[in-house]
Amino acid sequence: MKKMISALLAIMMLTVCGIAAAEQKARKMGTAADADEFISVFLGEHPEELEGVWAFSAQMEAALKQMGGIAGMAKQLAALGTPESVLPAYEGEMSGLKVFHIPCAFSAMQVDLILAVQDGVIAGLQTGTYSGGKEEKDESELYDSIALTLQVPSLGELPGILTIPKGEGPFPAVILLQGSGASDKDESVGNLKPFRDLAEGLAERGIAVYRFDKRSYVYGMELMTNKQITLVDEYLEDAVNAVQLVARQDRIDSNRIYVLGHSLGGNAIPAVAEELENATVKARGFIMMAASPRPLDVLMREQYDFIYSLMPEITAEQQAEKDTLFAELDKLQDLDSLTEDDAVAGVYSAYWKWLADYDILQAAGKITEPVLLLQGEEDYQVTMEDFGIWKDALGKKENWQMISYPGLTHVFTTGQKTEGAAVYSRSDRMDAQVIQDIADFVAR
Fold first, then answer.
1. Which residue of 158, 198, 352, 433 is most buried, as measured by CB atoms within 10 A?
2. What is the CATH number of the domain that holds 19?
């Protein structure tokens, strides 16, 4: 699936495009050394020098044209800061394609630049979790980490981990749903791994946690040409199946399974709750972290306005780029005019139309199970305005509990709004009080 151009998790997606024949005269990419050469120029002062040199897929050529060429694509990395170090490329595989990972440390964030290649043709360039650091082991004397894959109909498997307290149990369990875009099981963003923090913190407090790679993270290449994908495909099916899977595991109390969603995953919770009503095993309750009741395009505009407001000076070129994005979002004012082939901000119209029909406040109001809603007061991506809307609409319902945290950001680490995306360059862990409040909610 094409990743949403969204600051909900401040993860930059450049483009992932389909495969097609390219000009035969252009160079083909076959080795890690080729990838190093490409990225060196791409991050340099004149990325436009790559034009016409390398073979691109037809869809990527079209995407580049929309962004103003290679130079326009390179400018989208501005939010990451200036490149400070670039490690050698290494080869891997993603969705059946050869990919080259290039770990890069920018001044504001560390990421991998990932080049997707088929038959030497460059099919996509995106950012991913930084792999240049030391791999952390998920092990403890207090809990076990068990590999547990989630089956995806017609696609395959999603790697997952069940983090479960040591002992006989049975233990309550929490299923984790990430925010927007292609995200791994830890919901890694920059140097942060909020879902790892949640899994370990809750397991240490006697609660099992299941986290798994998102469908779009594992099968992004397969999904990107599906023009009918909606939030149902991105969250609902896998969430329901994860509840059923975890309920069958030893040492798990199948009557005490909760579903937690962060950011866009939190927005999906009311729809997940409705879907679970028809499932064999239902959820005992729900946790929504940094979820917004407002339309996604409204949030996107607000987020970009805020990020631009942090710049000491906006150049004419930067203003033009912002105006272009907002003009793209203006297309959503007339959804009926969009065909299934039309994409807005990189997302096909079916996705936007599903969201437009999704009355999140109404759906949330129908939830009869306990709900815990959490909000960081220093979150510039989903703000206290969103929290206020939730409180006004549902704050008096007995099954709802709402908590906001001074000094915490979108991923519930310490920070300030005015830092922007720089908060993701730290190596902080999720605030302990947040984890304790979730544990207390489950215990009740």
1. 198
2. 3.10.450
Can you tell me the mean pLDDT for 312-321?
Answer: 85
| DSSP states of 354-366 | HHHH--HHHHHHT
Phi, psi of 210 (to 5 degrees): -115, 125
Structural domain including 244 reads: 143-295+351-443
Are residues 123 and 148 both part of a single domain? no
The pLDDT tens digits for 165-187 are: 999 989 999 999 999 888 899 99
Neighbours of 435 (CB within 10 A): 21
Residue 22: band (very low, low, confident or very high) from pLDDT cuts 50, 70, 90 = very low
Same-domain pairing of 224 and 94: no
Residues 148 and 268 in one domain: yes
Encoded tokens for 300: 């996107």
**pTM for this prediction:** 0.76
Per-residue pLDDT at 218: 86
For 278-303, write each residue's pLDDT tens digit. Answer: 999 999 999 999 999 999 999 999 99
Question: Mapping DSSP to helix (H, G, I), strand (E, B) and coil, where does residue 404 land?
Answer: strand
Angstrom distance (rounded) from CA 65 to CA 119:
22
> How far, in Å, CA of 338 to CA of 341, rounded?
8
The residue from 104, 128, 152 where one domain ends is: 128
The total domain count for the chain is 2
In the chain, how many H helices and how many E strands?
A: 16, 18
Q: Coil, helix or strand for 299? A: helix
Q: Are 298 and 8 in contact (CB under 8 A)?
A: no
Chain-centre distance of CA 136, in angstroms?
21
Question: Which residue from 372, 408, 403 is spatially nearest to 194, judged by alpha carbons?
Answer: 408
The answer for residues whose C-beta is within 8 angstroms of residue 80's C-beta and 6 or more apart is: 12, 106, 107, 108, 109, 111, 127, 421
Q: Is residue 193 part of a domain?
A: yes
Model confidence at 199: pLDDT above 70: yes
More confident residue, 96 or 102: 102
Q: How confident is the model at residue 21, as a pLDDT? A: 34
Residues 256 and 357 in one domain: yes
